[in-house]
Amino acid sequence: MAKITAPTMHDPIYVGTHGNLSIAKAKAVLAAAAVGDVVELLEVPIGIDMQGVRVSTTGLGAGVTGTVKLGDTTIKSGIDLSADSVVDIPCDIYTEEKQKLTVTIAGAEATGTIKVNPTYIAKGY
Q: What is the pLDDT of residues 35-48, one digit of tens each?
């Protein structure tokens, strides 16, 4: 299992005026990512109320699935990432510490682009 760090891991999440619904953008281009590889997409700061996650791909290859997690919390597992698709996943997770938003590759080797866009409210800490 390898860790793949997306360029967006270094992008800050907007935490301006508290109470406003916001969206963050994360993107990774994968080249033969192996089953079990963890793609680190964003670092989510303390005080974020995650409301949902949109996962979209260009199609990562036949049989590819994935699990989206925020820290140790699984948001959704078994997501079909094999074809061009957009999946909206509702959730309600509050961050009491910094956590990484990740996708773990499963099913088959993955090649292509994956975008993960969390929707959140900055509540502060």
A: 999 999 999 999 99
